[in-house]
Amino acid sequence: MGISEGAPKQTLSSTAKAGLMRASTASLHTILFKRGLRNTYIQGVGKINSGSVKMVGQAFTLRYIPAREDIDTVAAFRDPKHPQRVAVESVPEGMVLVSDCRQDASAASAGSILLNRLEYRNCAGFVSDAGIRDSKDAAAMNMPIFCAKASAPTNLTKHHGVDIQVPIGCGGVAVFPGDVLVGDDDGIIVIPLELADEVAEEAVKMEAFEDYVLEKVRTGTPVIGLYPPSEDAQAEYKRHMESR
Q: What pLDDT, in 10s, does the model give residues 20-40?
């Protein structure tokens, strides 16, 4: 099993985290797209929580390869060094456990016992491009949980854990240890840590402008010349912000 240090050498600033908590994944995708980053949305994965959730945290990664019948038996879980168990017990508080299961949701990557253990340990969220077991229990949890679907089969039938805290692919997106994941009802966006501060700053401004645009649209203003804004619309928005 490959494993590197648990806590990231660089951490997300409290200012950036606060900004990202206010930002939608839709806005963040647009901001990253303008910077040339197109593949930042984890595909095929959605929240399983029954209520609305917002997740912001740095990635703690777990990589799986296809299972093999002579190795991945039920007895494998008795090994105290089993990567899945080690990841659950070593993910630092406030980080998101991200599982790369090769987008194979025909088996689970966690169930209620492990998910509740992560919640108790103040994990910021769980993300997997596979399934999860015990979905009814998971849906009622406060910790944000994102996966491909409910899936009863144990992960041992399809997934063999090999590495912790290495670069992975989750839902077709590259995720490096320490990357910032933002999740909401629309899904998950992956942000390189070095861009987090400037992206968060722009997101706060973008959300404020889009709130203003929504108010205008809801009272009958056409979108042409408003979104994106013409020079006149920009001037009007500036006056609006100065009057607040």
A: 999 999 999 999 999 999 999
